Records
---
Amino acid sequence: MDYRAQLGIRFITRRKGSLIAASLAVAIAILVVQVNSVIFQGLYDAIVRDLINYRFGHVFISRQEDFITKSSFVLVNWLERIPYVEAAAPRIDYSAQINSTVNGQLIKDYAVPVIGVDPVLDRKASTMYQTVGDGQYVSFRNSIVLGAIADRDLGYPKVGDTVKLKFKDQHGNDVLKRFTVVGITKTAGSVGLDNSVIINIDTLREIIDRPQQTQSIIVKLSDPTKDEQVKDFFLSSFPSNADKFKAQTIEEAAELTLSGFRSGIALINLVGYFGMMSSAFAVVTIQMMQVTSKTRDIGVMRALGSKRKDVLLVFIFQGMVIGAIGAGLGTVLGVVYTVYAKETHLTFQGSLALEVKYNWTSIVQTDILAFVLAVIASIYPAYKATKLEPVEAMRVG
Amino acid sequence: MADYVLEVQNVDKVYGQGETAVQALQNISFKVRKGEFMLIVGSSGSGKSTLLNMIGLLDRPTTGNVTIDGIDTSTLNDNQLSTFRNSKLGFIFQFSNLLSDLTVLENVMFPRKIQGTLQSAAEEASTLLKTVGLESQMNKFANKISGGQAQRVAITRALINRPAIVLADEPTGNLDSLSAETTIHLLKSLNRKLNQTFIVVTHDRPQFGDVDKVVTIRDGKIVEGELEASLR
């Protein structure tokens, strides 16, 4: 082994206190980045997951203006013939005034988003039906599922109660309709349709006088990585100006919701990387202490013929040892935390289950960054070591 | 081949500038032949260690030249000086100055590791350690042996590269009388056996008995004495 590497390794490994302190500083910085990643990237991915499951699918098809007039039956069948498409379902987003009478007391009208779903297709393309905690999902024509927030605002009507909705059809006429509550839906973090009500799409079409029309089609893929491909294939297959289709991936469809989270994650990552910079300062301090404690040895090395660059390399190797051990320890701690978060289905603020992924690229990048920072942090102390004159170093060391 | 292994010519050393300047050495000149055992003697603060540092190329004279093995060292840059120290000079310090993070064997091999000539270095180091009676201590870390043993290790480390000159700065200054006697005996026997040039700084002239040459330093200057006698 090169003698500079050997000395660098021995200098630091035989000072266990310094080695542990410096390596822990690096390891904890990595752990902070990893924990941030697990929590905040996990939260972001969980929101994306739920938006896919409840609202948009992997690909969200709509029309640039107004409603899709092409038959949803035809479109869904066409889409389901694409190999990567697992299911597709039509939906209509509308609004209505809603009221209910609970315990003889009328809860005044207020505006509520109304989602029209196909009871059969929606179960295949969305997991919205799984969020019904009390009762069942939309089935018969007059059934309604209340979002938990809408339910609260209506004074907590129960399954079996009735609610009245007042719609305006496409001609501007008021249409009053009574529905029977069949279920209450509640989603973690209210990412689903908690502030909406869900009814049968055919009922909604009839009420607003838009037979066979659809506002959007959510497409669930068997391979989510093919979303761009499916989107492009769809658009190229329906290029007509009359159709004016718009197809979006989840990232595009939920851009408004997600962009804020992305900025937040970037900020949190920045905090993590600042933590890493702090660990670099800890390495600088410990390395300076090492140089001070090894001043006599540096003098001896120089007297025996080591050049200044050899002294520099000894402390750079020492930094590499700190970086390697710290990165290794940090990775182990980070992976253990990630496994724990994944296996225990860690939740954010007790509700939203984080979507924890093993992001090896990110782990390796963080490790490399931590290692490089430990080495960079060693440059200044190493440089100071090279400036020691042998006679002086041996006298004061 | 040069007649002298060391030529010190008109060496002055001044520390500081202006009013605070201190003249540590003044007009020092002498020569040493290969194989000689020379002492530099003087009281504390006389300048003898400063002179040894000049000869050991650990410090540069303010004026004057130090020529070792025919090479004028004043022309060498920092890197060349390091290489030169490694190949031409061996050092024995008062406190042995072994690297405590290396084993005894690794310490002895250290100058060879710097040189990058590791072939047979381990065997040569082992042989030298055997010569000084430390073959059983080879794999111990340097801070686990006694002061006398450490000084013997330092002697073998100084010899591993077969230097032109071995410089020893108060090599017995930190040893008990028995270890000091053993060390002096060892230095002298190596001088005779290997025809190795030794320059030893000491404040205890009588301890060394008969030597080839003595330079006495007082207030940074060579004073008349044994040097003159030996040169006659």
Note: Chain A touches chain B at residues 3, 6-7, 10-11, 14, 296-297, 299-308, 310, 389-391, 394 (CB under 8 Å).
---
Amino acid sequence: MKTDLLIIGAGPAGINAALTADAAGAEVILVDESLQPGGQLRQQTQLFSNLPKNKKKTRGTSLNNHLVESLNASNVKVLSNHAMVGSYLNGNIGVTDGFKTFEIHAKKYILATGAQEEGKIFPGWTLPGVMTAGAAQILINRELVLPGKNAVIVGSNDFAFEVIKQLRICGVSIKAVVEDKDQLQSEKQDLLSDLGNITFLTNSTIELASGSGEVEHVSIRTPSGIKELEADFICISNGFTPILEPFEVMNCKFTYKEILGGWLPAYNMNFQTTNSNCYLAGSAAGITTLGPILLTGEIAAWSVLEELEFISPREAHNQKKECWEELMTLENNNVFQKRTEIIADSLLQDNWNPKSYFTELQGGQIHG
Amino acid sequence: MDKSTIVCRCEEINIDEIENALKNGAQTFDDIKRLTRTGMGSCQSKVCLHPVREIIADYHNKDLQDVGISRMRIPLKPIRMGTLATESKDSNVASVFGESVEEGDENR
């Protein structure tokens, strides 16, 4: 199978990249391992603001419906229920539908394979009833299954609070929120105030989860001693980290930025990895929020379109400039700063000249 | 934490076994993998990679950013050998396996 552009991962970044490339006339194949496109957006019922200017504040699921509708109306060839299994020595990507494995040769690749949740280990974490916040969200919003009646939440980041809100609406009782740091991690006060009276245990960790064949009992080590709770469900929200395997088999180099999720592929301002045929987009390029995820998909697509000469360098320049400016406005400052550090490193290595708009964004200089 | 706590659930490896590997000279995730089978189960270290990195960082008194990741290999998903071998008319499956043979192994 041959195409101009092969995109792995049909989440918001992959779909947005596909739509951008398709609209400019490129032939696009979009591969996703799930039965339906949308990625993690499929169960994100929470409201998202801070979206690019052509999109209003909306629920993740509504935005997903909109993206999938656009995808269906486009010429993008979507291969759902197909997984990337590896790369061939000739650089092509191997894809399987579970019955056969075949090779796709594309002129360029965009890997938009997203992030995975970080687990947390404690005695008893392997018991049924322990799961990540993302898994709990899939159960309630997609599978319509209640993960438990009485929950202990581990972690207090934004995502934990969004999921707590949704669990409560489903009738789950929140017995405690356990945070090992000395203060709650979410900085969003509106999320906190929505939660009402919940027991927050800071400087605390789970000492033991126990039960016969499933979680029944949770012991929590707090500064004031051990607290015992009856709970059948432990929900871990310990942040996200970029998925690296597809990049390793495509021979991309990695770098480390804690705030972007730890190890992640190195890339330049075109979202091009150290494998020049291979671009990236979305959470794979660093953990961020939905608006920036959509924009990174767009920048990667414009870069590919420029490289394949579907658009002029001038148009590519203007489109990417617009995206980067919007990205800087929408993205958390610390996250954006670390992103530019990665790009600054790529400039040092490639002797690249940064585009003028990029140095303007950085106040006239680009520094790691 | 209790040393009997499982870290790699696929292969049922606990903290004690990982620390033993470290005492025997293991420096990297891949060292621990070879000595204990940590990360060699069905999830291929998707769950235990970072908890193990934390244990390595603690043991060797390193920053987490100085502890590398595991070598990740084809196939990226569990797949039947038969599926890997079918319908590969425009290339050959040997090239899929060629990766691990030709590039060898690098310790990070």
Note: The longest strand of chain B covers residues 6-8.
